[in-house]
Amino acid sequence: MNFWGRMLLALGLAAIPNTLNAQGSWPDRPITLVVPYAAGGYTDLTGRLTARYLEKALGKTVVVENRPGAGGIVGTQAVVNAAPDGYTFCVCSVGAISVAPFAQKVSYDPAKDLAPVGIISTIVQAVIVKKSLPVNSMAELVAHAKANPGKLNYGSAGAGGLTHYAVELFEVRTGTHMVHVPFRGGAPATAALVAGEVDLSFANMTDALPQIEAGTVRGLAVTSKERSPYFPNIPSIHETVVPGFLVETWNGIIAPPKTPEPIISKLSEALIKMADDPEVKEAMRKAGGSTVKNTPAQFRAQIDQEMAQWKPVVAEILEKEKKKETKN
Asked: Which of 73, 90, 165, 305 is the most buried (most CB within 10 A)?
């Protein structure tokens, strides 16, 4: 080996302990959690609860940065492009990870460009309608939509997200057609419904719960197969108009690709402990969600399973949209 070869080898070996020491001392500066949705929604709440817990668990400042847009795709992409040094993570959700890549062109591959750390919580959606809409059940909603094709509009947390594609899936299964009105998060979408600017929404429970309780909207159904413990008198879509209908969302921490494994493991351990924290559990419960314990490997397996599930569904939805455009 020549002189330069020996020098490069020596420099490379010298860098290894520094890298290990850097990972071992992680974190030694503030951490950023990117929330790909507007402030005030369920993902934002989840991110802020996680930030508050991790500050205590890790002993460093954790900053929440909202980067809304395109149903979570904008913020997710920002994390994919971030340095894999353990100081930027995404509070991601199922729509931008497991659904959107089949529905539109995104510049990341969830199977390759993301490093799952752990799911924080899960939540179902509630079908809510404005008070002036003349429907009181899912059967009446389907009948009204069929009698008025293209005249009802629904709000979502953004194009490509699960609050969008849940309705698209519902339309395919019921043969209805409604107009999509995307917003920059669940909170503004629900506010528009309360104001009567849209007719209905498949809203995350955290957005729907206080409005149903306050009587500002009417709750018709939930998207889980079982009834929600929050509203045992509200049926599921599964038991009313579409047997087998199921849409649930999660929020989880995802790191940029090539983030060192020791950092992933340390953060995963903190998230698993957070799931048992009484304060976090109670805050999630009040928002209509539930805490979750799982490992990075389990999170990856769930993403893979969801992608396999949503791929044919999205293809069917897109085919329906294509036929609709051809008719017009």
From this structure: 90
Q: Is residue 20 part of a domain?
A: no
Count of beta carbons in the 10 Å neighbourhood of residue 112: 8
* b (16+ CB within 10 A) / e for 9-26: eeeeeeeeeeeeeebeeb
C-alpha 64/C-alpha 13 separation (Å) is 37
**What's the CATH code of the domain at 289?**
3.40.190.150
Tell me: do 84 and 131 sit in the same domain: no
Enumerate residues 6+ apart whose C-beta is below 8 A from 237: 127, 138, 170, 221, 222, 223, 245
Total tally of structural domains belonging to the chain: 2
Per DSSP, the residues of 211-260 read HHHHTSEEEEEESSSSPPTT-TTSPBHHHHTSTT---EEEEEEEE-TT--
DSSP string, 135-179: --SHHHHHHHHHHSTTT-EEEESSTTSHHHHHHHHHHHHHT---E
What's the gap between Cα 175 and its chain centre? 26
- In terms of phi and psi (left: phi > 0; alpha: psi -120 to 50; beta: otherwise), the region of 169 is alpha
Does 277 lie in the same domain as 238? no
- Structural contact between residues 255 and 91, judged by C-beta atoms closer than 8 angstroms: no
Backbone angles phi, psi at 237, to 5 degrees: -60, -35
The tens digit of pLDDT for each residue in 74-119 reads 999 999 999 999 999 999 999 899 998 998 889 999 989 999 999 9
* Inter-axis angle of helices 42-58 and 186-194, nearest 10: 140
H or E segment to which residue 315 belongs: helix 296-327
Rounded CA separation 285/297 (Å): 26
Peptide bond before 27: cis, by omega within 30 degrees of 0? Answer: yes
Q: Alpha-carbon distance 2 to 59, whole Å?
A: 47
Specify if 8 maps to a domain: no
Q: Is residue 318 part of a domain?
A: no
Are 132 and 171 members of one domain?
A: yes
Start-to-end CA distance of the chain, whole Å, equals 72
